[in-house]
Amino acid sequence: MKSPQMQDLHFAKLTDNRKALACAMLAERHVRLFSIISNKQNMQGYRNPFAAQSLYGVVAILAAIHDRGKTGLGQHIDVAMTAGLLPMLGYHFYSHQRPPTPRMFSTESPASNIVPEQSVYRTKDDRHVAISIPEPWLYERACNELGCPELIPNYMTDDPQLSYDTRKRLEEIFSQRTRDQWEVFNFERDLGISPVKNMDEVLDDPQMKHRGMIIEHVFEPVGAVKHIGTPFILSRTPADGVRDIPRYGQHTTELLTALGYSSEEIEGLEEDEVF
Question: Which pLDDT score, from 0 to 100, does residue 112 have?
Fold first, then answer.
């Protein structure tokens, strides 16, 4: 499997706290696995949720430690894997809101993993489901529920032919029901099968709304725009929402004052058209 992008993040220089460093090392190990598996036709990508969860978990921990260093108070940190994925879709999220026609990304041609047990499959209604079955016991149960017990010995096989045969059989199975039917099927059995949603569905997703991941804010003169919220929740110092994009020169006076310029000097700079 070739990865066109590989990203390493190093947090060690941010703090001397040993616990924070340990968390940073754990996250870096996960982020080294964070790759974007691209589709050759439209460069769609599959984001690794474990990397997202680790990354934002470390950011949240460092933020809490920084605050504790100033106040001496601790707090609860809430990080959700699903919420961590949305910021990684930022380009798609904002492109979808561009007029005149929203662009749909999620279900056009999702990338697929080489591992059949953790991949994306087309459904009867030409949509998709994603499966993630990382444990042998769950894979065995899923094969029995899906009516393909003959695939149980093929779990995580290194044999290319067996892997190919497993994928083809699963493609055949998932093509027999619609995406929403598979969602109900999974809800009743809890097998690790999830619907692949388009961006409209993501924006209206109850879980995303519940965690405050979809924020609507009015920017003048654009109007109301939806934004991505913070992917982690701190119990005592939560994020304070979305701020307006600074206008040209909006903070110039404030910054010059902070640097020690007097009001007369600032007025002189403005009269000389320095800014």
Answer: 53
